[in-house]
Amino acid sequence: MDRRATAAAPTMLAVVDMGSNSFRLEVGRVEGNQIYRLDTVRETLRLGAGIDAKGNLTPQARRDALACLSRFGERLRGFDGANVRAVATNTFRVARNAAAFLPRAEAALGFPIDVIAGHEEARLIYLGVAHVLPPGDAPRLVVDIGGGSTEFIVGRGMAPERLESLKLGCVTMTARFFADGTLSKRAFEAAETHAQVEVEAIAREFSRRHWKEAYASSGTALALADILEQNGFSAGGITPDGLARLRKRMIAAGHARHLKLAGLKAERVPVLAGGFAVMAAAIEELDVPRIDPVGGAMRLGVLYDLLGRREHRDSREATVESFIDRYRVDRPHAERVAALARELHRQAATRTDAAVARRVAWAALLHEVGYTVSHLGFHKHGAYILGNADMPGFSRQEQQSLALLVLGCRGGLDKVAGALADAGVRAQLLALRLAVLFHHARQPIDAPRIRIRAGRAPAIDAPARWLRAHPLTAHLLAKERDEWRKAGWPWRTAG
User: Fold this and answer.
1) pLDDT classification of 456: cutoffs 50, 70, 90
2) What is the pTM (predicted TM-score) of this model?
3) CATH assignment of 314-457?
4) pLDDT for 455 beyond 90
5) For the chain, which has fewer Cβ within 10 Å, the N-terminal or C-terminal residue?
6) What's the pLDDT band for 275 if we cut at 50, 70, 90?
7) CA distance 199 to 191
């Protein structure tokens, strides 16, 4: 027998990076704890320039995005959903109609799309860069200039220590300061001054005293490094002197269409000036003598993060643990609530979904983080924290889902009424609210098994004898039943 024929097929992972300058699809093969990149598809859309005066993605920008995602979707046919992650960055963070457009984008791609916050983008960038750099303990600065934002990270080894994201990108800066292609001294001064003001706000946290090595990832950095080296402006890496010589050449050209530089690719010409201004400002404000280009970046970071989730090294679990500690959550109580919520959700849900089950458990573990603000309305404070805090590993949608569950874990249902039409959300809220209710005394429950019989009008099975012995719980359960009835989703008790 051919042993190769019986060997298990290698695991394939894929990431879709929906950036403000380009959309990229990357496929990697997993071998042990390493990922080997097999295939990369890149399409330059400049989505960041497709936002109108009202802050909406234009119809043309949406059409271009859908067409690209449809092509990517064809390449991804046959992939297990657990092995694919699509992430959208700054343009989807700022466009007013992004949320309405997202379902169409997901349908075109065939997979869910996570809109990630700037700090999460920075974390993933560092994770990708750290996997291509030699191991070492020296603190590193990583700067990643994207189409709509620039991320700054200081870290050691595989661990980021400082993360920041600024709304400075090669596409948006070009559109603002070099819209007609004119490359004048005045335009560069205005662009670099604007970028310097933004970077100055974080300069103290990212100054040279915090790092020993400096790296820059993604397209702008790689393009600048190639141009500086191939034109003799720098002996290696990106330096202040090299950038000064390049600036002089660009101003002499007068217009982007007249730029003739060795190493400058045609697709980079339209956004070079904006990216240059951000890099020059970063080097100036952070006092960087030389910054070296490096591969990796966010796509590789997403692939390794995805691999970690598959192998039970989910960064979201670490975040939940850190929040439990940071917000001084009563862990034994939270774990009891989470255990019952998981079980009740398993019974109430119409279909099994491991990701949703984890979400219910995480919401239960974190439902009291708002106590650090105030006991009164703690669920409202907790919802605000979970919806707005930096939560490494979580997408914006995941954070909003957690916030919704915590907001609705007690009190009136009117504050989450808009979400109740979704049967899945109803099941999650019902399970969490009942778990919180039955643990109101903050002690282990001595009751026999509590069950939910699923259906449009669910039934809650709780032993009548036990309820008679626990009149407060029975009273709270009756009030909970009335709350759901008023919301238009009645259920009954049995036992």
Assistant:
1) low
2) 0.81
3) 1.10.3210.10
4) no
5) N
6) very high
7) 12
Cα-flanking dihedrals φ and ψ of residue 414, to 5°?
-60, -30
pLDDT exceeds cutoff 50 at 6: no
Residue 413 has what pLDDT? 95
Q: What CA–CA distance (Å, rounded) separates 130 from 158?
A: 6
Residue 1 has pLDDT above 60, yes or no: no
- What is the assigned CATH class of domain 133-294? alpha beta
In contact, 14 and 39? CB cutoff 8 Å: no
Q: Give CA angle at 174 (279, 293), nearest 5°.
A: 30
48, 113 contact by CB (below 8 A)? no
Does residue 4 have a pLDDT over 70?
A: no
The predicted structure's pLDDT at residue 3: 42
Domain ranges across the chain: 3-117, 133-294, 314-457
Q: Under CATH, which architecture does the 3-117 domain have?
A: 2-Layer Sandwich (3.30)
Q: 212-237: per-residue pLDDT in tens?
A: 999 999 899 999 999 999 999 998 89
Token representation of residue 88: 């959208």
Distance CA 166, CA 149 (A): 6
Do strands 213-217 and 11-18 pair parallel, antiparallel, or not at all (unpaired)?
A: unpaired
- Which of 275, 286, 297 minimizes the C-alpha distance to 213? 286
Q: What is the SS3 assignment for the chain?
A: CCHHHHCCCCEEEEEEEECCCEEEEEEEEEECCEEEEEEEEEEECCHHHCECCCCCECHHHHHHHHHHHHHHHHHCCCCCHHHEEEEECHHHHHCCCHHHHHHHHHHHHCCCEEECCHHHHHHHHHHHHHCCCCCCCCCEEEEEECCCCEEEEEEECCEEEEEEEECCCHHHHHHHHCCCCECCHHHHHHHHHHHHHHHHCCCCCCCHHHCCEEEEEHHHHHHHHHHHHHCCCCCCCECHHHHHHHHHHHHHHCEHHHCCCCCCCHHHHHHHHHHHHHHHHHHHHCCCCCEEEECCHHHHHHHHHHHHHHCCCCHHHHHHHHHHHHCCCCHHHHHHHHHHHHHHHHHHCCCCCHHHHHHHHHHHHHCCHHHHCCCCCHHHHHHHHHHHCCCCCCCHHHHHHHHHHHHCCCCCCHHHHHHCCCHHHHHHHHHHHHHHHHCCCCCCCCCCCCEEECCCCCEEECCHHHHHHCHHHHHHHHHHHHHHHHCCCCCEEEC
